[in-house]
């Protein structure tokens, strides 16, 4: 193998740059030429490709976002789009492709492998942490810390005014960010898609908290929660508790910012592991870390098998909030 490609795809996440740096440095130290593909699969379709070397990844480990940029490519869903992408791979004689992204990006990589046989390796990069085959995804820790800081700030103002706040965090269809940050922020309730939300129960819990002497309440709502998001839940809840409710949507601030130490280490570790595994002749797999060890998971199992939230954490959340 002489030439490999690397791209970042889907929602960006802090620590992707650490992973790009690790891929480039590990690969060049094995005398491989690395091609960086810009804007994910869009760049692969359009031939937006740059040569990378040791120096081109200097100083990026501490930067948020991704120096290769990202996109949610619609074109890559089509056979014609993938044909163009394969042409680009052939033009640059790219013999192995490392894809840093989430489940949508892995689906794309899996299709590419099936259609042209190019070895593909996935590195889990998404703030959602919803990928089977790894304890944590790159960017999750940073997103949680950003959300936590916001939750602490909201607590200050909620306490000053004796208010109820519903704070919506990201996570797509998963409740990891909500559950972890809710526990860490001492939230009075946490609403996640993995558990059916009963707004009557939420109201009862809140009333109990106030009877026990609480001044304020902060409820963390995962964007994918089945009650329909923070604004809708607040409307229903307001009439049940007879108090005014404020809503804050944290949104994309959770995606940006400097990566935490954890995300820089995870990106570095997985970047090197991806090159090692590609050179060992493996394909159509994702590298992850489970219980402190590098683990390979077949790409399709990263989305067909659901990771599931930790029932122990749900118990802790309930026990400590009530
Ligand atoms: O998958 C990462 C994520 O930030 C989700 O948490 C969120 O639902 C989605 O991407 C937002 O996507 P976009 O930036 O395309 O609006």
Total of helices: 11
Sketch the topology as an H/E string, one letter per element: EHEHEHEHEHEHEHEHEHEEHH
Pairing-aware structural class of the strands and helices? alpha/beta
How helix-rich are the residues, as a percent range?
40-55%
Ends distance: 58 Å
Number of strands: 11
- Bulk shape: elongated
Mean pLDDT: 97
Strand percent estimate: 15-25%
Bound molecules: 6-O-phosphono-beta-D-fructofuranose
Largest sheet: 7 strands, mixed
Please give the order of strands in the largest beta sheet. 3-2-1-4-5-10-11
Uncertain parts: none
Radius of gyration: 21 Å
Description:
- This protein has 322 residues and is of the alpha/beta class.
- Helices cover 43% and strands 18% of the residues.
- It has 11 helices and 11 strands.
- It has helices at residues 16-29, 40-46, 79-91, 103-116, 140-161, 176-185, 199-211, 230-241, 261-279, 301-304, 311-321, and strands spanning 3-8, 33-37, 49-52, 96-101, 120-124, 164-169, 189-191, 217-222, 245-249, 285-290, 293-298.
- The strands form 2 sheets. Strands 3-2-1-4-5-10-11 form a 7-stranded mixed β-sheet, sandwiched between helices. It has a 4-stranded parallel β-sheet with strand order 7-8-6-9, with helices on both faces.
- Helix 1 runs parallel beside helix 9 and helix 2 (40-46) crosses helix 3 (79-91).
- The radius of gyration is 21 Å and the shape is elongated.
- It starts with a strand and ends with a helix.
